[in-house]
Each structure stands twice: as structure tokens, then as C-alpha cells.
Amino acid sequence: PKSVKTFSALLIQADAAEKLNEPKRVKTFYKEALKLKALNQEERNKQKEIQNFLSEEELQKKMDEKNWEGIVSQIRQEVKLNQRLLDEKSFNLLIYAESQLENPEGILNAYSLLRKNDPKHAGSFNALLHQAQLADQLGKPAQVRQHYRALLQLKPADEQERVQQESIRNYLADDALQKELNQNNWSGASRILRQQHKSGLIQLNQENF
User: Fold this and answer.
1) At what angle do helices 141-152 and 125-137 cross, to 10 degrees?
2) What's the 3-state SS for 84-109?
3) b or e along 71-108 (b: 16 or more beta carbons within 10 Å of the residue's beta carbon)?
4) Alpha helices (runs of H) in 4-118, residue ranges in sequence order
5) Rounded mean pLDDT for each run of 10 residues along the chain, 209 residues in total
6) Measured distance CA(121)–CA(70) in Å, rounded
7) Which residues contact 13 (CB under 8 A, 6 or more apart)?
8) Residues 143, 158: Cα–Cα separation, whole Å
9) I need a labelling partner for 110 at 20 to 30 A (CA). Which of 64, 76, 97, 132 fits?
10) Rounded distance between C-alpha atoms, residue 203 and residue 97, angstroms
């Protein structure tokens, strides 16, 4: 009968199947409910809940099977279709799955996705440090410098972060100096050395004088 295919009837049947411990039938009724056009906001909200339920169930199945490629594919696809918010839980799972696949490029790309959804998290001290390390691992020096410079703009939360910033500042200065020397740009090298001396990063000695 047509009434069996109405949204409310499908939900009732799904609820009954759940009470009878028949998960496959629950999913069948839920999937049918998602095919129907929602008639009001209440039905739209319920369809969103059903979609989230089915998505999390499928994700859990892939986790149990250690299907890391499947997890990565599902999360990325759902984020792309605005069916999933890349919150901390989803992001951490995506990073973990990419790590299991030993895919630093995928992890770095995950941060790009995070930047669109949660720029504050993507721009945090540890996140920027991780991105710089990944870029270095992938042989992308321009990205390394980009993330390190962004990290230096942050106020250190403790002494450890302050020390790390100082080390990064030295690294960037040495990197810039080496670049000028490689290009035989003596005036540029001299300018960087003067800046380093002025800021206290180096002391003039026979080697750099």
C-alpha cells in the first residue's frame, strides 16, 4: 500500500525492526526514507539524523575492518558534499587513517580541508608545526617556510613553545642566508648577518665577520 511508503510509516517500521533486533531491515527502511522528498522542516531534520546515523555506522564498520582507504574516501566525500562537518573527531580520524596508509601528502591535504572548516585549529601552534614537518618530509621548502612564518606570528603558550619559536627563527635566518650565499649575493648575505646580529641571534666572529 502507498501508505507504507510514507515518511512516517517508514520510520515506524524502522523503529519496529530495531526493537526486533533486525539492523539490516532498519537500514533498509531508513534508506527508503531518505529517497522521499521531505514535506516540512521536521522531516528534513529527521532525514539529516538518519543520514548521520547511517554514515557513522558505515564508518564504524570500516574502522572495525581497518579499511583505512575506505575511511579516507568516505570522510572526504561527505565533507565535499556538505554531508559531514570536519569537526575535531572527524579530522582526527582522517589524520589517523592517512597515517595508517603512510600518506603524508594526504595528511597535509587534510589540513587544507580543516583550514576551510576550522581555520583557528589549522592555524594553532602544534598544527602549523606538524604541517611544516610534513612539508619538509615531502620536499616542499616553500611550504615549510610558509608554515614556520605563520607559527612565528603566534604568541607562545609556554616556555617550550618560546624555545621552539627561537629555534625556528634561527632556522629561517640560516636558510635565508644560505640562499643568498648560493646565489653569490654578498650584499644580501651581509644584510641578513647584520639583522641577525642586531636581533642577538649571532655574535660576530672570524667565521661570519
Assistant:
1) 160
2) CCCCHHHHHHHHHHHHHCCCHHHHHH
3) bbebbbebbeeeebebeeebbebbbebbeeeebbebbb
4) 7-19, 23-35, 41-64, 68-80, 88-100, 104-117
5) 67 78 80 82 81 83 94 94 89 94 96 92 94 94 91 92 89 61 50 52 48
6) 25
7) 4, 25, 29
8) 25
9) 64
10) 47
Q: Look up residue 156 and give its three cell numbers.
A: 607562545
**In this structure, how many other beta carbons lie within 10 angstroms of the beta carbon of residue 58?**
15
Could you tell me the three cell numbers for 120?
A: 583557528
C-alpha cell at position 167: 629555534
> Measured between alpha carbons, how far apart are the two ends of the chain, in Å?
92
The single residue listed with the C-alpha cell 641578513 is 192
